[in-house]
Design brief:
This protein is of the alpha+beta class. The chain has one domain (about 1-80). The protein is built from 2 helices and 3 strands, in the order H-H-E-E-E. The chain has helices spanning about 1-20, 40; strands at about 50-55, 60-65, 75-80. The chain has a 3-stranded antiparallel sheet. The longest helix has 20 residues, at about 1-20.
């Protein structure tokens, strides 16, 4: 009986971990891999793709272009200094 309880506990924890990891990405969280920061999304509200945009940060103003980042279906201000493509590729 004790062994069965342990097996059920392990299976339950495994299932909970799988569900937590399967959550979809949401824009505006600003962490690497989780989409652009909310300020970048707000900077492009009401603008078209490829429109110029600026973001105010604690370190100063960042200029960029409104684009839709890969895997995120939201228009956001991508800084001009943002490197596109893989290392070694031409821009």
């Amino acid at each position: 009986m004790r062994r069965l309880t342990m097996i059920i506990s392990i299976l339950t924890l495994t299932l909970m971990a799988a569900v937590a990891l399967a959550q979809p990405r949401s824009p505006g969280q600003g962490r690497r891999g989780n989409g652009p920061p909310k300020a970048a999304i707000d900077a492009c509200k009401g603008k078209a793709a490829r429109a110029r945009c600026t973001i105010q940060t604690p370190r100063g103003t960042i200029s960029g272009v409104c684009r839709v980042p890969p895997r995120i279906k939201v228009l956001a201000c991508i800084p001009d200094s943002h490197r596109r493509g893989k290392p070694g590729q031409q821009r």
